User: What shape does this take?
Amino acid sequence: MQHIVIAIDGPAASGKSSVSRALAQRLGFVYVNTGAMYRAVTWHALQLAIDPSDASAVEHLLETTALECCTDGGQSYFLINGVDPGEALVSPQVNAVVSKIASQPLVRRRLVAMQRGYAERQPAVVEGRDIGTVVFPNTPHKFYIDASPEVRAARRAGQGLHDSVVQRDAMDSTRKDSPLAVAPDAEVIDSSYSSVDEVVENIFKKLDAKGITPQAR
Ligand code: CDP
Assistant: This one.
């Protein structure tokens, strides 16, 4: 059985993580950050000095690594051989190559299956690049959060993070398997000039009109 899924997609630094986390909190749903899963696999590959473009080395890595999806207080996290990489997930080294790892079909197949598992257990706000197009194409609740490239670059710089969002977007949008794309039935929200609270309120109202209301955790 699949519970309610709110799919939130969008390019890098569009504000979708902050919006998804706050929306999940308000609804009492679990928040699933699928980008963190691709980042965790990337972190692990870097630790073992595996070339992120080497498909067979990455395949071997996946076969020999324990991956675990967990939740704590409505927040999802991901363990790699029992370890949560924490802040290392957003390191410049991971930012630089995560899109390469994420372009590999085998990695996607393995992680997508785990992402679907969350919704078998509880209602979820799931955030990523292919959630409305590939992971949960049948959910009727899809949002695509965008912002201008200038605003997105400024947001990332404001967080003090070194991250070439333009380069990552280019790779994510042009890869063969599950590229970043707007699902035909997604509602596009431009967050360039809106606060997180305003975007959350906007989505919350649209969901409320469809009968999706907060639940106790
Ligand atoms: O937070 P930000 O938007 O910068 O990125 P993220 O959501 O942490 O995702 C990091 C990278 O993982 C993306 O640039 C994609 O290459 C990949 N990703 C993906 O391919 N599919 C997803 N559903 C989520 C992330």
Remarks:
- The mean pLDDT is 95.
- The chain has one domain: 5-209.
- The chain is about 45% helix and 15% strand.
- Residues 5-209 form a domain with the Rossmann fold fold (CATH 3.40.50.300).
